[in-house]
Amino acid sequence: MVEDSLPEELCIQILSRLPAECLVRFRCVCKTWFNLISSAPFFIDHLTHQSTDMNTNKYLVFNHDNFYSLRVVDESENTSLEINFRAELVVYGSCNGLVCLSHESVEMNSDIYLWNPVIRKIKKLPVPSLVFDVSPDMVDFGDDELVTSVYVCFGYEDDDYKVVMVGVVEGVCSVGIYSLGNNCWSVVDDLENDDDDLDPFRLHDLVSRDSRFVNGAAYFKTSDDADNDNVIVCFDMSRKVIREIGLPDEIHEIDSYTMDVYGESLAVLTVSVYANGLGCLSISLLSDESVPSWEKIFVIDLSWRMNINPRVPVRFINKGKVLIKVGVKLFVCNIETQKLVELKGEGMTHNIRDCLGESLALLGEDNVDVRAMSYQRR
Fold this sequence. Notes:
Layout lengths: L7 H8 L4 H7 L4 H7 L2 H12 L6 E5 L4 E8 L4 E8 L2 E7 L2 E6 L9 E4 L4 E4 L23 E10 L2 E10 L2 E8 L4 E5 L3 E2 L12 E9 L2 E6 L8 E6 L4 E6 L10 E6 L2 E9 L5 E8 L7 E9 L10 E5 L3 E6 L2 E6 L5 E4 L7 E5 L14 H4 L5
Parallel strand pairs: 12-16
Antiparallel strand pairs: 1-2, 1-25, 2-3, 4-5, 5-6, 6-7, 8-9, 9-10, 10-11, 13-14, 14-15, 15-16, 17-18, 18-19, 19-20, 21-22, 22-23, 23-24
């Protein structure tokens, strides 16, 4: 018997280092392996090994030409998994092997999906029931003067995937948090404005597709660049407050920086261009203080002459690397050594949305064709 040939502890150590796609097949070897691979502790062990794997070089690539082509490109193996689906669904973030998908314009009752592209599993989330404390004359959703906005943030915390939905009606917020582990939504009560200067209508200028969830807080860019007054709006679930966070001094435009997670902190990455065409990459972390401030941890010289405006960094890659796009070229920058390597390969010159790890999340879900979901619209 296979299960008797190796000690269980050694078997776990070996299996947890294997690719997720292999483990899906290995569940058919025997009942013991099926139960082991399907268990929650093994999922966490496998995710831990994958997140520290030096050979994780997978990227989500998509192009918009009447449809999205979302490809998982593995640089080390020069292979790709391609799944096409129509433009009704777009990516609202990826984290630890899962991708959050929804419609182009998210509404209160929009379908939201979590997709594991490596093992080809998808889960449709239950519809959240957000509650708004608004006056009776604001409940007529047919009123043209009533402004309704919905924003989505996706992340991983406390060994669980979380989806945060923020609904805004005339400056009044309602926030729901979905937990994959519990498969349900919870409404955050008594979320208060912690900043007297926060303009309620700024909450209608958030950007869902560059949001980050870290340490119990959802961070959104703002799209209103009037007077170069871009800020990050933070929904802190643990303290139950909403607040604005000013950006580092060198950031003046929404398109000049990227938010990401570095360790357990929110980071902003920005490329600055000098008059002579040279530039640098700056990485700053948000300090966890009562008065938020930024600590610059790296300034990396980009030692080539840039004849065109650079695009902002895409995001961090495992083991202290940053993916940077300049024009149509992509570079991987090692933060410690500051060595730059051009990233080449099929699909690499397209728009890379995120780096993608491997995960066994959604292993118990049914196989669903992504293309079939694109026709579902409420």
